[in-house]
Amino acid sequence: MIHTILNSEVAASFSWEYFAWALLLGGISAISLPLGSALGLMVTPRPKVTAALTAFGGGALFCALAIELVAPTASALTEPAQHGHNPHDAMYGLLSGMLGGGILFFMLDQIINAHGGFLRKTASTIAYMSMRRKQRDEKVLRQLSAVSILREVPLSGVNKLVNLVRPRTFETGEKLFEQGDAGDALYFIVDGRIGLEENGKHFKDLEPGTVVGEIALLTGATRTATAKAIGRVQTLSLHKQDFDSLRHEFSELDTAARTLAQSRMAELKQHHDATAHQVTQWIEEARLAIEAGAELPTEGELKKAKEEHSGAPLAIWLGILLDGIPESFVIGATLLGVLVAYHGEPALLSVIPYTLIAGLFLSNFPEAMSSSIGMRSQGWGRGRILFMWVVLMVMTAAGAGLGYAAGEYLDHTTMVTIEGMAAGAMLTMIASAMIPEAVHLGGASVAGLSTLAGFVASVAFKMLE
Questions:
Q1: Count of H helices and E strands in the chain?
Q2: Are residues 433 and 310 in the same domain?
Q3: Based on the domain organization, do 69 and 211 belong to the same domain?
Q4: For residue 286, is it within any domain?
């Protein structure tokens, strides 16, 4: 015990040699970043291969965090600790740090994504596009809720209904339809006003939220008036053939349509507003029925998103840096912990936290490969992409050195809390980016088995220590 304490005091004094070790280990764990990027720039693996590698890296990193960061503090509650500090204080610090790190990562990630940083990863890109689609769908649902007959569509058909509606914009004086035209579509006025004319005489203006041509969906009758845009008008249109396909697929809608068609023409021409409660209930139920939007975004959507975020390159780089900061600090801090607990004169190979380094190395490779493929598809130059990952490798090495140096001047509980923040941030990143990306690209089976393989591989490196 005396030997351990004396050795701890020696290890706790700052050493440039140990600092260099921290830099080296940080560089080794991050060298897979430019290697993975180079592979992604040279070849484009099949989606299932990318998914398997991503999930494998996620499992390896998860194992490294559990064994190297969480397990030592947790086991100190039941076993004698060599650091001589209160194990319960350390555990409280670890738990609070993990929660704080996860929340902080989430907040910073959201800020960066809002400026275009979501383009750095497939998972974040899918999440961003899904959010955009969800916002669009909810807006459409609110507009469609004004039409009572459309609320007869079963929840299973809500997503199809939303996708069938098409936005249309009319300029000043442009006609939506003319008197005598065949009734082939329904229009929902989203913004602007529409004037109705009968035999060339204006008789009514329609405001936003109003429906034009509802009866045409049921009867196909000719228009009894001319609808003309007063200023710029934005609408949503539903073609009769799409409405008919819904009627054939959903008997409830067909029954409601037939009942409405048999009513008097005068009643059909009136727009019946539902009560506020009915509308709100329908929107809520319909929103829950819409799919989460797990589809990959189209090239057009990606191009539009890129054009909307002129600062995307910087945001993407900051996002990548955000992913790498926690792991770099942990490397140096973990090395210091191993040095403190080591008996005798330490040698580099005898104090390397193999499980942690292997987990980080294995997780960095597919992350860089996948992100580089995405950046390349967005028109980025190969040299620019590779340079970003090389810079991140250097900064990871520097962060590892900083983690070692910081440990020299901070008490044990504070260091455990900081490590907990890093672990929380990385766990949040695994759950929100790596695993979802693997599931999207390869399916649940590929993602599950590959995650397990990565976990097992990382555990195996423990035998080298």
A1: 21, 6
A2: yes
A3: no
A4: no
Is the CB of residue 436 less than 8 Å from the CB of residue 127? Answer: yes
Where in the sequence is the domain holding 405, given as residue range(s)? Answer: 2-130+299-464
Q: Which residue has better confidence, 341 or 292?
A: 341
82 and 46 assigned to the same domain: yes
- DSSP 3-state assignment of 173? coil
Decide if 98 contacts 330 (C-beta within 8 A): no
Six-digit token pair at 309? 């975020």
How many angstroms separate the Cα of 306 from the Cα of each of 120, 315, 437? 11, 11, 20
**pLDDT of res. 3:** 35
- The average confidence (pLDDT) of the chain is 78
What's residue 411's pLDDT? 84
- For residues 267 and 151, membership in a common domain is answered with yes
Q: Which residues fall within 8 angstroms of residue 31, CB to CB, at 6 or more apart?
A: 361, 393
| Residue 289 domain flag | no
Half-sphere exposure of 372 (CA within 13 A, CB side): 31
What is the reported pLDDT for 174? 92
Looking at residue 150, its pLDDT comes to 66
Q: Could you tell me if 353 and 450 lie in one domain?
A: yes
Two structure tokens written together for 277 = 């409660």
Are residues 460 and 352 part of one domain? yes
The rounded radius of gyration (Å) of the Cα atoms in the chain is 30
pLDDT above 50 for 273: no
Cβ partners under 8 Å of residue 350, min gap 6: 342
Report for 2-11, 360-369, 406-415: range of highest mean pLDDT: 360-369
Q: Are residues 93 and 22 in the same domain?
A: yes
Q: Is 207 helix (H, G, I), strand (E, B) or coil?
A: coil
Both structure tokens of 393: 């490798």
Mean pLDDT of 406-430: 87
Same domain, 159 and 267: yes
For 243, the token pair is 């409405």
Work out the burial of residue 113: count CB atoms within 10 Å of its CB; fewer than 13 is exposed, 13-18 middle, 19 or more buried: buried
First-to-last alpha carbon distance for the chain, in angstroms, is 21
